[in-house]
Every structure is written in structure tokens, then in C-alpha cells.
Design brief:
By secondary structure, this protein is an alpha+beta fold. The chain has 2 domains: about 1-30; about 30-110, Copper binding periplasmic protein CusF (OB fold (Dihydrolipoamide Acetyltransferase, E2P), Beta Barrel). Helix content is about 25%, strand content about 35%. The chain has helices at about 1-25, 30-35; strands at about 40-50, 55-60, 70-75, 90-95, 100-110. Strands 1-2-3-5-4 form a 5-stranded mixed β-barrel. It is elongated and about 80 Å long. About 15% of the residues are buried.
């Protein structure tokens, strides 16, 4: 009986590093599973066409590890600012481009 217990203990000790490795690498990392094209809901607080910026009160941006807040974004294409106005509920995509948080897609929520 002691031999079986010792064998089980040794097997568990030897297998532990492999099971830890498999468990920590079996799923895709959070950043890889979150899409850079993740759509987020928000509300437009300000549109600044001259500065090519938009202020949005937004939900959590998980892929950017950012909590819900109100912030100013650059826009990828200034023409996007013609699609929305202050007070609009929107669905948008934000990415970090050149070190700046940038709205790459935006549409008024229907």
C-alpha cells in the first residue's frame, strides 16, 4: 500500500509542471482573444472637426484595458465626424494608433 501511495505522489510531482504549463497555455491570451475591431457603445459629448477629435463617454474598452470613462479620441478619418453629433448614442471601434487612442469606425446607434 505504501508503494502505491509513493508512486502516486511521485507521479503527481513529476506531472505538476506539465499540467501547470498546459493549463496556462491552453487558452489564447486575453489580448489575442480580444479583437482590435471590438465594438463599444458610447455617447458623443463633443465633436471638434477643426482638431479632428471626438469626445465620447464610453463603456469599458476591454481590448485596450480601459475602464468606462469620458475621453477625447483622435479620428482615423475626419469625415467620420460628419456622421455624428453631440448627444448621439454611438457604436465605435477604438484602437491605439501611433501611441494615440483613435476611433477607426463609428456609427450612430439605431
Amino acid at each position: 500500500m505504501k508503494t502505491i501511495a509513493k508512486l502516486a505522489f511521485v507521479t503527481a510531482i513529476l506531472a505538476a509542471p506539465f499540467s501547470l504549463y498546459a493549463g496556462s497555455h491552453s487558452a489564447a491570451p486575453a489580448s489575442a482573444s480580444s479583437s482590435a475591431n471590438e465594438k463599444t457603445e458610447g455617447e458623443v459629448r463633443k465633436v471638434d472637426k477643426d482638431a479632428k477629435k471626438i469626445t465620447i463617454k464610453h463603456a469599458e474598452l476591454k481590448h485596450l484595458e480601459m475602464p468606462a470613462m469620458t475621453m477625447v479620441f483622435q479620428v482615423k478619418n475626419p469625415a467620420m465626424l460628419d456622421k455624428v453629433k453631440q448627444g448621439d448614442k454611438v457604436i465605435f471601434v477604438a484602437e491605439k494608433v501611433g501611441g494615440q487612442f483613435t476611433v477607426t469606425q463609428i456609427e450612430a446607434k439605431q
